[in-house]
Specification:
This protein is α+β, with helices and mostly antiparallel strands. The chain has helices spanning about 15-20, 65-70, 105-110, 155-160, 185-190, 200-215, 225, 275-280, 330-355, and strands at about 1-5, 10-15, 35-40, 45-50, 55-60, 80-90, 95-100, 120-125, 135-140, 145, 175, 220, 245, 250-255, 265, 295, 300-305, 315-320.
Length: about 350
């Protein structure tokens, strides 16, 4: 809707978008000296959404049809559903919208004119050209992407296709992550992240800690039970986008916190957590030896050391520190302030007693 007024007063309307989309040079004339070009503000609009190459809002042109709009918007994509094109229009009052459905053939054979503020929606053919792949990373013979069949392909089948595990693979720490549904919004967690610890209840703080340790999308599956003990209930059906990670086996235990020599120690099956602490030189001088925690390698779970029957390769032993008490000067200053306040109260009381005699 671009207007050009020539020197002799002649007015013509041009559609520059038609030139840009179709190369129609008649809609892109040469200007001559004295021409006036007027680009008016867009007041009337139509919109097209969905499986169209150039979706968005377009200026309404009286008499334009749905088929012409589809053509102007670049045509339908490969995934477009041609048998159910929805046209949403306002009624005469402009307060109520009505939907009508057409096939592409019907629109071509019997053109439907658009009205101001119409919405055209092009749906997608369900699951058409939908990739169904999973990814296998880490210590397998043939890592990479593998095709799956919906509701059929299992974890064991994919590992077999990947050539099985390498000798250094850790089934204990192997994991399956599912991207579908892993980004769910948790308003309670977001709220707690903004609150100081002092303003939380113990339950809220426990929830915050547990949620922060959570691995988004992690699917609970025990690779050892499936591939070593052959327990079929662990052989879950995979979904598109799943990622299987097989890390290298860790032959060590990690010690953190208040031990004399924190670090990594070679794993030995018969050793307890106390044995590892002794090998590392024993507890540090500020260690809380009755609050030792074990961080499990396969789940990230924090467990009291006394509740662990046996350590596994990759586990972490955490020895917390006894928090320091208040400094002498802080205690002395506080005591001095309290003593001064008590002395003032005693003096005031004595003055009242003497005055009342």
């Amino acid at each position: 809707n671009i207007k050009i007024i020539s020197r002799n007063g002649e007015e013509k309307i041009y559609d520059l978008l038609t030139y840009l989309r179709f190369g129609d040079k008649s809609e892109n004339p040469y200007l001559t000296e004295g021409d006036v070009v007027i680009v008016d503000k867009v007041d009337k609009m139509i919109t097209i959404y969905g499986e169209i190459k150039y979706s968005g809002a377009y200026e309404y042109v009286e008499g334009e049809t749905v088929s012409q709009l589809i053509e102007l918007a670049g045509g339908l994509t490969l995934k477009a559903r041609e048998d159910s094109i929805e046209v949403v229009s306002f009624d005469e009052t402009g307060t109520y919208q009505v939907s009508n459905y057409y096939s592409l053939d019907a629109l071509n054979n019997n053109p439907v004119e658009l009205k101001n503020q119409d919405r055209v929606i092009i749906r997608q053919i369900p699951e058409y050209y939908l990739d169904r792949f999973v990814k296998v990373d880490g210590y397998v013979n043939y890592p990479g992407w593998y095709k799956i069949i919906k509701d059929k392909t299992t974890l064991k089948e994919i590992i077999e296709q990947a050539g099985g595990f390498l000798d250094d693979a850790s089934l204990t720490e192997a994991s399956l992550t599912r991207s579908v549904g892993s980004t769910e919004y948790d308003p309670e967690y977001e709220r707690l992240k903004l609150i100081p610890r002092a303003d939380m209840t113990d339950d809220e703080y426990d929830y915050l800690k547990a949620k922060s340790r959570e691995r988004p999308g992690r699917v609970v599956v025990d690779f050892e039970r499936l591939f070593v003990m052959n327990e079929s209930e662990e052989n879950i059906i995979l979904k598109r986008g799943d990622e299987i990670n097989i890390p290298e086996a860790k032959n060590y235990i990690t010690l953190l916190g208040q031990v004399v020599n924190p670090g990594k120690l070679i794993y030995k099956e018969q050793l307890t957590y106390e044995d590892y602490i002794n090998i590392a030189g024993g507890y540090g001088w500020r260690a809380l030896d009755d609050e030792v925690r074990i961080i499990k390698a396969n789940t990230g779970e924090w467990v009291e050391a006394e509740d662990i029957d046996a350590l596994k390769p990759g586990d972490t032993i955490w020895v917390p520190e006894d928090p320091p008490g208040p400094k002498f000067w802080d205690v002395f200053t506080t005591a001095l302030q309290v003593a001064g306040q008590v002395a003032a109260v005693v003096a005031a009381t004595m003055a009242v007693i003497i005055a009342s005699r």
